[in-house]
Amino acid sequence: MEIQGDSVIINGEVYGPEDGVEIEEHTIVLDGGESADDSSIGPDSRSTPVYQSWGASYVQSQEYVQFVYRGEAYAAANVWNGQRVVGVCFQYRRDGNNLHSELCSSARSTGSGWQPGETVSRLQTDSLGPNDPVTEFHYRIIRVDPSVN
């Protein structure tokens, strides 16, 4: 599976929104070292672990020792809310800059069914200075109509 804009390529065929493809994106500000109950932190800021799942598929980010984050994604090829999860991707960002290439777990079509993607993970150091830009955890989930093979 390859992502191109709001479409995906599966076994050489292009599928777009008209075929039931949905690509959902989220960015969460990781405000390391702060309390999750601190009212100055917005609803999209986290110091606690980030974990989002869609059935067996998931993305997560966990901070260790206020210094390093570990991100992980897995696309199980499961059907969730009427759509098949075929991709889960993530990337750490800071101050508008990508800190690494996007990592994706991509389910694979066999032509007659689907196989889950490999789990992908990455360690990413946090910024240490009190006035440094915060780290952001950006993730995407790619879903298709279950009839797509």
Description:
With 149 residues, the protein is mainly beta. It has one domain (19-144). The chain contains no helices and 16 strands. The strands form 4 sheets. Strands 4, 5, 9, 10, 11, 12 and 16 form a 7-stranded mixed sheet that branches. A 4-stranded antiparallel sheet has the order 6-7-8-15, with no helix packed on it. A hairpin with a 3-residue loop joins strand 7 and strand 8 (68-74). It is elongated. The model is unreliable at 33-46 (pLDDT under 50).
Number of structural units classed as domains: 1
Radius of gyration using CA atoms only: 17 Å
Intertermini distance: 11 Å
Structural class assignment: mainly beta
Shape descriptor: elongated
Strand content: over 45%
Number of strands: 16
- What percent of residues adopt helix (DSSP H or I)? under 10%
Order of helices and strands: EEEEEEEEEEEEEEEE
Enumerate how many helices there are, as a single number.
Answer: 0
Main β-sheet description: 7 strands, mixed
Overall pLDDT: 87
Sequence stretches where pLDDT stays below 50 over 5 or more residues? 33-46
Tag the structure with descriptive keywords.
16 strands; 149 residues; four-stranded antiparallel β-sheet; mainly beta; seven-stranded mixed β-sheet; 54% strand; 0% helix
Layout of helices and strands, plus pairs?
Blueprint: E1 2-4, E2 7-10, E3 13-15, E4 22-30, E5 45-46, E6 50-54, E7 57-64, E8 68-74, E9 79-80, E10 83-94, E11 97-98, E12 103-106, E13 108-109, E14 114-115, E15 120-125, E16 135-144
Parallel strand pairs: 4-5
Antiparallel strand pairs: 1-2, 2-3, 4-16, 6-7, 7-8, 8-15, 9-10, 10-11, 10-12, 10-16, 13-14
